[in-house]
Design brief:
The complex is a heterodimer of chains A (670) and B (322). With 670 residues, chain A is of the alpha/beta class. Chain A contains 18 helices and 34 strands. Chain A has a five-stranded parallel sheet, covered by helices on one side. In chain B, 28% of the residues lie in helices and 14% in strands. Chain B has helices at residues 17-23, 28-35, 49-53, 72-84, 93-97, 109-119, 171-183, 251-254, 272-282, 289-297, 302-306, and strands at 6-11, 37-40, 60-66, 69-71, 85-91, 134-137, 140-143, 147-152, 162-164. Classes of the chains: A alpha/beta (670), B alpha/beta (322).
Chain lengths: 670, 322
């Protein structure tokens, strides 16, 4: 005969978590207390509840003691709720008869007083024990996952993720805002610490993307809207008019030659303005796809409506179409990888470094172009004034580690500064001075690289640069004086140099907040997207099915970016190959006969899961869209929306438990 | 011929509207009188407490008690009626939730007495005389009922079987309730004898309510005209309809006034005021503090607006001065 006899039988367990919990909370006292609470038939403590013996203990008790409810007080549910739910369900009990109490993050770790902490643990435990009585058996629903993937951003992160997925046989849509893929990496000359040529590694991957049968590459395109949920996203992509018909252009560049502007005269984005381009242009020689683009902001036809349209005439293949309109593509994907990258810190914001005022002050990215063989000077370091520098200062931490700009360390600047020091020395034989706060070179082979640079004769001065100004002793005022305190010798030093390189940090893109909203992911205050958990889910976001790769999540170097892109691709693959996703059953539902059709809830749902049925004159929740946020539940004025796992009696009993309500009631009534 | 079932009416802290609603039965009252014996109804006929005391416990089939409980006399009477009755029905909003008298819970007893006997503009009481609970007159003790600190709904004082909501309950509900009682097919104890769905369900303006409700301000019906066709809440007037039980036939909306919530919440809601607040606030468009101030300006008396009938029976219950 069953012991339960329709009765609630609760098993309670508290975890020591080594000394994490037991070091502060008196677990024996909590166990003794829990044993006195109604419906509790087992009350135990154990060193590591999440371990196999811990889980087996629960399972054994479920069977032998005929438990029908389980409460475990341990760490955050985020960490081990799933573990204990599984243990519960493997013992034959519905997993939602389990309730977790957080006595670590919300108790032991944040309190110093053992007595008060123990009392708080008892309150939390009482609350869960009262709540679990009202739990109901629930079933997890599954929804199928669409196998196609959207990758947003065609830098090295997006490229690597796309190729990984495509090689695994998945169909990938790669959307890039610029006319070419390649991102920042395509602008670099060489990469640290190996000093191999960026183009040599990147361009084969770029053409692999273009030629891969599983990749649909849409450059000069932007994601307009994202609807749906994990496994079933509906995405609208805007393909901006390039004024060139993709299929007809072969990249012969005849139209550029034929342009009515005989000389290039507009800011060349790829070369950071160090050279000029025409309104019709190829971003750079290895641009992928090899398609020219017409910039309507500078093209005289778009500005005035008057032009001989020599470009149109020159194209034998009739690829130039000045009437092209934006095209919209709608796709359905199951997962999304956001790899939208970064932008370099605007060096002009640190006004006392004189960027934009003194022509020989350069940003690091400009120098990358300057020393690049395919750059504006074909790799010769010729400055804006036509001279070649004999001495160069490299200023670290521009826009990083500074409360006036950004607090964070951009992680790559020390190393790319060392790299630039090496390359500049190689190209010019100049004296190079690195002004640094700390040299940060963690990672494989990185510190060795630093040692090598020091051995090459690059000079290092520990001091943040305070000022940069023209050298008055130099008649032409070309030379600049870099003033800083050398904190190792505790002296203010002034170093005259011909060229200054500002090692600008990495900052989020200007539209990071719009992108965040578009994909319903989260941003930190500085604007980098937040991963779900830095250690447990480093490429996931808080929106299921959307993953992060590269510098949009935070500054990182190319090896880390590629590793992260691979991880994001693997996470997407894991979902796709499973084929379905289990939904947490904490969804809201409307009890139809109770709904008065007041429509209050309809506009509130952040996931657009609620609709109003005009025929029935009632609201309806699409369970697949519901994320269980509870907004509609709290707002339903007639209490006709319920939420699994958060029904009123569950919440009220929890509150009563935490307030020890019966005792309170007695106290006021007498 | 067996005796007809005995029926008692009693009133506590109430305005008399509930008694009126019995009279509102009009000719249907004849049906009631045909089928039951009204053995106690102080408002309608001359009965004394002793008339009730002489019945055996449980002999009265139904007592319909209206009004909130705020004095020793009311408490004594309802406890007596409870003892003598098989079924007690809390009749009307005051008995069910404390009603308008329940709003006295916003004040301390002393504040109330001082205002009523000393400070109110219409009071002339130089010697500041207050009623005494007990005094001697002609050599014998005379007693007056004592005013309690708290106004309570009926179910906080005695066991209540059923509830008839409303301020007052509609005569239709009363008639249906009498029919149910006479049929002998009693609903589960604690049932509110009205539909368990919010008022919007039967509101004639339901279809004019938009699905994208977003408030930027609230208007007061004494200062602005109400469009007689459109959903009143969507016009910016606080209408309690979405949080209030139906059964009245949307009487107030029919008179072009917003619902004030007298039928109380549905069975799913513990606290009507909190629920409508939660709902209306969710639909407020304002995001900045300045915009929110504009919204708040339209609700100068939040308790009187959202808890007009339900304060005494709510989770809030009473303002406590510490």
């Amino acid at each position: 005969m069953s012991k339960t006899n329709g009765k609630i039988r609760i098993g309670f367990y508290i975890c020591h978590c080594g000394t994490n919990i037991a070091g502060t909370v008196d677990v024996q006292k909590v166990v003794d207390y829990a044993a006195t609470l109604p419906n509790v038939v087992v009350s135990k403590h154990y060193k590591y509840m999440c371990s196999d013996p811990g889980q087996e203990m629960i399972q054994k008790d479920i069977k032998e003691q005929e438990l029908n409810r389980v409460v475990v007080a341990a760490c955050s549910p985020f960490l081990h709720e799933r573990t204990f739910r599984n243990a519960t369900s493997q013992a034959g009990l519905n997993q939602f008869y389990f309730q977790m109490v957080n006595t670590r993050e919300q108790n032991a770790w944040v309190h110093l007083d053992p007595e008060a902490s123990t009392e708080k643990a008892m309150d939390l435990v009482r609350s869960a024990i009262k709540r679990v009585v009202f739990h109901k058996p629930l079933e997890q629903k599954t929804v199928p996952i669409k196998p196609d993937v959207l990758v947003v951003g065609g830098g090295i992160a997006g490229i690597h993720a796309s190729l990984t997925l495509a090689n695994a046989g998945k169909k990938v849509y790669l959307v890039e805002r610029d006319p070419t893929i390649g991102g920042h990496m395509a602008m670099f000359d060489k990469t640290f610490p190996t000093l191999d040529c960026a183009a040599c590694i990147l361009t084969p991957k770029m053409s692999a993307v273009k030629n891969h049968p599983n990749i649909t590459m849409w450059t000069y395109s932007e994601v307009e809207s994202v609807e749906g949920y994990v496994g079933n996203f509906k995405v609208k992509v805007k393909r901006k008019p390039r004024y060139i018909i993709d299929d007809l252009c072969v990249g012969c560049l005849d139209c550029i030659e034929a342009c009515v502007y005989k000389e290039p005269r507009f800011y060349d984005e790829f070369n950071q303005g160090l050279s000029k381009r025409k309104p019709v242009y190829m971003p750079f020689p290895q641009a992928t796809p090899q398609l020219v683009v017409i910039d309507p902001d500078t093209c005289i036809w778009f500005k005035t409506g008057k032009c001989k349209q020599t470009c149109v005439e020159s194209c034998e293949r009739k690829a130039v179409d000045l009437n092209q309109q934006p095209a919209y593509k709608e796709i359905e994907v199951g997962t999304i990888i956001v790899a939208t990258g970064f932008k370099p810190f605007d060096a002009g914001k640190v006004y006392y470094y004189g960027y934009g005022t003194y022509p020989n002050v350069y940003t690091a990215l400009e120098v990358e172009r300057l020393i690049n063989a395919s750059g504006p000077t074909s790799g010769e370091v010729i400055m804006r004034d036509g001279s070649t520098p004999k001495s160069i200062a490299i200023v670290h931490c521009v826009g990083s580690r500074d409360k006036n700009t950004n607090l964070w360390c951009s992680r790559v600047c020390c190393l790319y500064s060392l790299k630039l020091a090496h390359l500049l020395k190689e190209h010019t034989h100049a004296d190079i001075y690195n002004f640094y706060i700390d040299i940060r070179t963690p990672g494989k082979l990185m510190d060795e690289f630093y040692t090598r640079m020091a051995e090459e004769g690059v000079k290092f001065i520990r001091g943040r640069v305070a000022d940069i100004y023209p050298d008055t002793s130099d008649e032409e005022h070309r030379r600049l004086v870099v003033k800083a305190e050398d904190t190792l010798i505790r002296e203010i030093i002034k170093v005259p140099v011909d060229m200054v390189v500002l090692s600008t940090g990495l900052v989020p893109r200007d539209d990071a907040n719009d992108v965040r909203r578009l994909f319903n992911i989260t941003c930190s205050t500085e604007g980098f997207f937040i991963e779900r958990h830095p250690k447990l889910a480093p490429v996931n976001t808080f929106t299921d099915g959307i993953f992060l790769a590269g510098c949009c999540q935070g500054p990182k170097d190319i090896p880390d970016t590629v590793a992260q892109a691979g991880a994001a691709a693997a996470e997407a693959l894991a979902l796709i190959d499973l084929g379905y996703i289990e939904l947490e059953p904490n969804t809201a539902f409307i009890v139809e006969e109770e709904c008065s059709g007041c429509k209050s809830c309809v506009p509130l749902c952040p996931y657009s899961a609620i609709s109003y049925n005009e025929e029935k004159r009632k609201a309806n929740i699409n369970e697949a869209l519901c994320k269980g946020c509870g907004t509609c539940v709290a707002s339903c004025p007639s209490g006709s929306i319920k939420q699994n796992l958060f029904e009123d009696e569950e919440i009220y009993s929890e509150i009563d438990g935490i307030l020890n309500y019966e005792i309170y009631e007695e106290a006021v009534c007498c | 011929m067996p005796d007809k079932p005995k029926l008692a009416f009693y009133w506590c802290a109430a305005c008399g509207g509930c008694e009126e609603s019995v009279v509102d039965l009009a000719e249907d009252i004849l049906f009631v009188v045909d089928n039951v014996d009204i053995i106690f109804w102080p408002v309608g006929m001359d009965f004394k407490k002793s008339d009730v005391e002489k019945y055996a416990d449980g002999e009265i089939v139904v007592s319909l008690i209206n009004g909130a409980i705020r004095s020793s006399e009311q408490q004594e009477m309802v406890q007596l009626l409870r003892r003598k009755s098989k079924v007690v029905i809390a009749y009307g909003a005051c008995a069910q939730y404390g009603g308008i008298p329940g709003l006295a819970n916003e004040f301390e007893k002393e504040e109330i007495l001082k205002w009523v006997y000393e400070d109110s503009p219409s009071t002339y009481n130089e010697e500041k005389v207050r009623p005494l609970i007990k005094y001697k007159a002609n050599g014998s003790d005379v007693f007056l009922p004592e005013l309690w600190n708290v106004v309570r709904p009926l179910n906080k004082v005695i066991d209540v079987d059923y509830y008839l909501p409303g301020c007052p309950p509609s005569s239709k509900l009363l008639k249906e309730a009498v029919l149910v009682l006479l049929s002998g097919k009693l609903p589960p104890k604690g049932t509110v004898l009205a539909p368990d769905i919010a008022l919007c369900d039967e509101c004639p303006r339901k279809d004019t309510k938009p699905t994208d409700l977003a408030f930027t301000e609230f208007l007061r019906p004494n200062l602005h005209n109400i469009d007689p066709e459109k959903c009143i809440l969507s016009q910016g007037f606080v209408c309690m309809g979405p949080a209030t039980r139906s059964g009245c036939g949307a009487l107030c909306v029919g008179g072009n006034m917003p619902c004030t919530g007298c039928y109380g919440p549905t069975s799913r809601v513990k606290d009507q005021g909190a629920k409508i607040l939660s709902s209306i606030c969710s639909n407020v468009e304002a995001k900045t503090e300045k915009e929110i101030d504009v919204v708040l300006k339209g609700i100068p008396d939040p308790v009187g607006t959202f808890y007009r009938y339900s304060l005494a029976g709510s989770i809030l219950r009473k303002k406590v001065s510490i």
